[in-house]
Write a structure and sequence with these properties.
alpha+beta, six-stranded mixed sheet, Nucleoside Triphosphate Pyrophosphohydrolase, five-stranded mixed sheet, 268 residues, 2 domains, binds zinc ion
């Protein structure tokens, strides 16, 4: 359940600024007193806790560009993805959940049905409306991410909206009414013009930037020529596994999809 009126917390606390986590200079997590110190220096959303997950967290209102210059002495930022890379599954869940809830609470303040201010639910991690009884739960947006293989080559694409030096997998949001397999086939067809077969589930990853669940798949080329959707993909091609452009760094499901598939092709 949510506590939105917290005044103390025993365990380690979390603070986020956009895609970054705030740490002490020695890379350790914050105490409740640290949160209070940061609040005095920079604009923040309210602190909240969810005791059953060991979460006490807050979000900073700053953009990442501003935050490192605005933090009090003794604190620093690190990309959350880098921070989480070597953590246990349990800690990944705790921190990813805290990040997702921070995002959700920062933009969910009024009832979407009647417009009254929302309150914390008495027993669940949810917000509720005294006016109409609406209950609002944390939002999760399912997305697919897929690596397509054609013989011993893989399909890598440069996305218009992302880092232009990186070639990655095809990815996209699920549409209402779709199965995940339909979504995989549709996204590949829309973005690259090709048809795939043998769509197989790979693994998943929480991606709380702000609220995605990445569902990873592999697929095999079936037919068609590459024909790119220009507003989404700036370049794409079939790459030999030993001659690929720069791909996503460790810490993402894209990295694992690409590296696992390379290993599979090498061992064929
Ligand atoms: Zn309402």
């Amino acid at each position: 359940m949510l506590d939105l009126n917290i005044e103390a917390f025993e365990g380690s606390c979390l603070a986020f600024a956009n895609r970054d986590i705030i740490l002490r200079e020695d890379n350790s997590l914050l105490s409740y007193d640290d949160l209070m110190t940061i609040r005095e220096h920079t604009e923040c959303y309210d602190v909240f806790s969810e005791p059953e997950y060991g979460i006490c967290a807050m979000g900073l209102k700053h953009s990442v560009a501003d935050v490192s210059t605005d933090l009090p002495d003794g604190f620093k930022t690190m990309t959350l993805r880098l921070y989480l890379d070597d953590k246990s599954e349990e800690e990944k869940l705790r921190v990813s959940r805290a990040k997702a809830l921070t995002e959700w609470l920062s933009k969910t303040r009024y009832c979407c049905r009647c417009g009254k201010p929302l309150k914390a639910h008495k027993s669940l991690t949810a917000l509720c409306c005294d006016g109409c009884g609406e209950q609002i739960f944390p939002r999760i947006e399912p997305c697919i991410i897929v690596l397509v293989r054609r013989g011993n080559k893989i399909l890598l694409a440069r996305h218009v909206q992302r880092n232009q030096n990186i070639y990655a997998c095809i990815a996209g949001f699920m549409e209402a009414g779709e199965t995940v397999e339909q979504c995989v086939r549709r996204e590949i067809k829309e973005e690259t013009g090709i048809t795939v077969k043998n769509v197989r589930y790979f693994d998943s990853q929480s991606w709380p930037y702000p609220s995605q669940l990445m569902l990873g798949f592999t697929a095999e080329y079936e037919s068609g020529e590459l024909s790119l959707q220009e507003d989404e993909i700036s370049d794409a091609g079939w790459y030999d596994i030993d001659d690929c452009p720069a791909t996503p760094p460790p810490g993402s499901i894209a990295y694992r999809l690409i590296e696992t598939t390379k290993d599979k092709i090498r061992n064929m």
